[in-house]
Write a structure and sequence with these properties.
The chain has 220 residues and is mostly helical. The protein contains nine helices and no strands. This is DUF3159 domain-containing protein.
Length: 220
């Protein structure tokens, strides 16, 4: 019997990190505008807001490591903008990280280790069992392309064009729109592609069909 189909959002969690991705950049733009295009003020406001968000996340049970990484990213972005004297460079790390992510996800598909499968397999405690199921491997590969083009490449094109033209306010808006809303859309579309790629009768993501195992024992 085929298991009920869980969405990728259910499997991979909710909106963690959404505040980190959108609020400090928005705070930078607000501080920059309010202080007559002062990068120092924008950086100070962004870091201050990031610290408050970090405290909130710790109080609500998030791991300290994740909070420190998020805060460090904001501080690094602020230091880059202060060093170059270009407000748009606050968004440079985000631009470069999406370039790297697009290349990494594409490479993972080419070498037959699609990162969507790695992430979901880790979340389900499967280690690498999913990869020994040819049907799951093919489905994860197809769905991973949605992340390459529908998320990372799209961000590179938008962020890159706005950064190149020095559109600081538009970068702040784009950073908000292309954070959780885009992730939610990517999860929905890639989940649809993933399940549509599985043949009828496949037991589902939690139960890879591993050659040489008894039916019903694949996910154990």
């Amino acid at each position: 019997m085929t298991e009920s189909r869980e969405s990728l959002a259910q499997l991979l969690g909710g909106r963690k990190g959404a505040l980190d991705a959108s609020v400090p950049p928005a705070a930078f733009v607000v501080g920059w505008l309010a202080a007559d295009s002062s990068i120092a003020w924008g950086a100070g406001v962004a870091i201050g807001v990031a610290v408050l968000l970090g405290v909130f996340r710790l109080v609500t049970g998030d791991k300290a490591r994740a909070v420190v990484v998020s805060l460090a990213a904001v501080i690094a972005a602020a230091l880059i903008a202060l060093h170059t004297g270009r407000a748009e460079d606050f968004f440079l790390i985000q631009l470069l990280s999406n370039v790297a992510s697009a290349l990494l996800w594409a490479a993972s598909i080419v070498v037959r280790w699609p990162l969507l499968g790695v992430v979901v397999g880790f979340a389900l405690g499967q280690k690498t069992r999913w990869r020994r199921d040819p049907e799951l491997l093919r489905a994860y590969s197809r769905a991973s392309w949605i992340w390459v083009f529908g998320q990372y490449t799209l961000r590179v094109l938008v962020y890159g064009s706005l950064w190149w033209s020095g559109q600081v306010v538009a970068l702040g808006i784009a950073r908000t729109v292309l954070s959780w809303p885009l992730v939610a859309l990517t999860l929905a579309v890639s989940g649809w592609v993933l399940y549509r790629s599985l043949p009828d009768g496949h037991p589902g993501l939690r139960h890879p069909r591993v050659p040489g195992t008894e039916p019903g024992t694949e996910g154990k």
